[in-house]
């Protein structure tokens, strides 16, 4: 399969098509799985991505870059390789990259999750000979509750905080996680405000046609304001900063997959932790691999050694590769662990 995909110091490389998937350094031709900065690197000359990724990718990249966008399922030939994008369920515009050449099929899934998310297309299985999967939460301890369960938890917390006369600050990654959180909020509880980084990403979602509740940018409030009963969706780096002093009495919460681990909330110094991840949990990872049924499995960023060993013991040709992607830990602005393709 080396003519389709190989690991290089710049990331996953397709020699036949002469392009990289989610390159780790600037390259001439980048095929991008989604718009998070650890997958969509600034400085490449040409970007190819799914069409739903357009507003987010243009928002983050140089205006001098060249862009090309494909609808899900539509293919393009590059150097004899057929490339198509298929929903990954990670966030708006996220995609699995399917490559086909001389009857062989490789799929690089990037970041992905199974299940329903109102802000993006749901993951779909793509059968292949070679599959590249992430393993950010690749341990049996990571098992997510259904979406309505967590949404209800967050709204109940907000309602109780409102009744105490407090403002809620809910922290999540600026692009992807925050919009998913916003989509689940009940506007009847109170007004919803956003940190500037969150508002910018939310506008890109709206421009793509995703329905969002009404929000107000915090920075647009210039006069003295009563924040009691409000919900503010913000980035984790805002926690403990002078920015939050304006809100008066507050309750704080972090939304992250890492909240499944005991002690994670305490290390963040927040009042509540909600287990919300845009990555696959342990059972979903296994389900996804079995559905794609690859002859060869490459496992990257996260608990990759554990996941590879699990599939090896079940007869699959599974290997660890080091793609040097950062994990959701870094996306959430924290530093619990460094993930470089080996089990931490």
- At CATH level 3, the topology of the largest domain is Metallo-beta-lactamase, Chain A
**Strand arrangement in the largest pleated sheet:** 7-8-9-10-11-18-19
Strands, total number: 19
Q: Can you tell me the residue ranges where pLDDT is under 50 for at least 5 consecutive residues?
A: 327-331, 333-344
For this entry, what is the oligomeric state of its chains?
single chain
Mean pLDDT: 92
Rg calc: 20 Å
The total count of helices amounts to 8
Shape label: globular
Based on secondary structure, the structural category is alpha/beta
Would you state the CATH class of the largest domain?
Alpha Beta
What level of helicity do the residues show?
10-25%
Search tags:
344 residues; Metallo-beta-lactamase, Chain A; 2 domains; 8 helices; 19 strands; 25% strand; disordered C terminus; Xnuc_lig_assoc; RibonucZ/Hydroxyglut_hydro; MBL; RNA endonuclease activity
How would you explain this protein's 3D organization?
This protein is α/β, with parallel strands linked by helices and 344 residues long. The chain has 2 domains: 6-142 and 278-331, Metallo-beta-lactamase, Chain A (4-Layer Sandwich); 147-274, 3-Layer(aba) Sandwich (Rossmann fold), CATH 3.40.50.10710. It has 8 helices and 19 strands. A 7-stranded mixed beta sheet has the order 7-8-9-10-11-18-19, with helices on one face. Strands 1-2-3-4-5-6 form a 6-stranded mixed beta sheet, with no helix packed on it. A 6-stranded parallel beta sheet has the order 14-13-15-12-16-17. Helix 4 links the parallel strand 13 (192-194) and strand 14 (216-217). The relative contact order is 0.14. Residues 327-331 and 333-344 have low confidence and may be disordered.
């Amino acid at each position: 399969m080396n003519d389709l995909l190989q690991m290089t110091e710049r990331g996953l490389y397709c020699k036949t098509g002469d392009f990289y998937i989610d390159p780790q350094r600037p390259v001439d031709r980048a095929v991008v799985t989604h718009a998070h900065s650890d997958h969509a690197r600034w400085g490449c000359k040409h970007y190819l991505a799914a069409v739903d990724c357009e507003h987010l990718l243009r928002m983050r990249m140089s205006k001098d870059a060249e862009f090309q966008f494909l609808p899900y399922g539509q293919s393009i030939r590059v150097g004899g390789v057929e490339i198509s994008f298929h929903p990954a369920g990670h966030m708006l515009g996220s995609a699995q990259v399917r490559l086909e050449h001389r009857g062989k099929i490789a799929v690089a899934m990037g970041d992905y999750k199974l299940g329903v998310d109102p802000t993006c297309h749901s993951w779909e299985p793509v059968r292949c000979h070679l599959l590249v999967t992430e393993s950010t939460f690749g341990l049996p301890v990571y098992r997510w509750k259904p979406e309505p369960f967590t949404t209800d938890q967050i709204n109940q917390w907000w309602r109780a905080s409102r009744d105490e006369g407090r403002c809620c600050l809910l922290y999540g990654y600026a692009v992807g996680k925050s919009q998913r959180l916003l989509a689940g909020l009940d506007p009847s509880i109170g007004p919803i405000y956003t940190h500037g980084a969150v508002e910018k990403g939310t506008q890109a979602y709206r421009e793509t046609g995703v329905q969002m509740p009404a929000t107000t940018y915090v920075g647009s409030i210039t006069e003295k304001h009563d924040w009691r009963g409000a919900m503010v969706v913000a980035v984790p780096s805002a926690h403990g900063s002078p920015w939050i002093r304006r809100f008066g009495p507050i309750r704080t919460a972090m939304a992250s997959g890492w909240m499944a681990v005991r002690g994670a909330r305490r290390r963040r110094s927040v009042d509540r932790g909600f287990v919300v991840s845009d990555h696959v949990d342990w059972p979903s990872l296994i389900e996804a691999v079995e559905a794609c049924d690859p002859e060869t499995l490459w496992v990257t960023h996260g608990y990759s050694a554990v996941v590879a060993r699990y599939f090896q013991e079940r007869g699959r040709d599974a290997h660890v590769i080091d793609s040097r992607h950062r994990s959701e830990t870094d996306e959430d602005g924290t530093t619990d662990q460094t993930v470089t393709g080996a089990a931490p």
